[in-house]
Write a structure and sequence with these properties.
Number of helices: 2
Helix content: over 70%
Shape: rod-shaped
Oligomer: single chain
Radius of gyration: 50 Å
Largest sheet: none
Low-confidence stretches: none
Length: 120
């Protein structure tokens, strides 16, 4: 082999080694960047954990308030139903009493001698 061939082989080998070293460096740099980014993301998530727990606690409290309000509303609705039933019963009793009163007045008018004179 000639010396120029050996020189070209050495140059090519050096270039290949330099390219391999460059690729290895870039690959490691990319991994370091991704590693740093994943650490930042985990820290961010850890910071948000407190916020998430606080929001979940608030949501649970609001749900409890809604449940209490719903229970109170159902209780009020039941009371309203009972009062309506009582009012209907009292109206029936009043109507019955009025009918009895009107019958009594009609009977009184029938037997009242003065009432008969006034009609003429």
């Amino acid at each position: 082999m000639s010396s120029s061939t050996i020189i070209w082989i050495v140059v090519i080998a050096v270039v290949v080694l330099l390219l391999a070293a460059l690729l290895w460096f870039l690959f490691n740099r990319r991994q370091d960047s991704q590693r740093a980014k994943s650490i930042r993301m985990r820290r961010q998530a850890a910071e948000q954990t407190t916020t998430v727990r606080s929001k979940e606690a608030q949501a649970s409290e609001v749900q409890a308030q809604a449940n209490r309000a719903k229970a109170e509303a159902q209780e009020k609705a039941a009371q309203a139903d009972q009062l309506q039933a009582k009012a209907r019963e009292q109206r029936r009793e009043a109507s019955s009493t009025r009918a009895d009163m009107e019958q009594t007045l009609q009977r009184a008018d029938k037997i009242d001698p003065d009432r008969k004179r006034r009609k003429r």
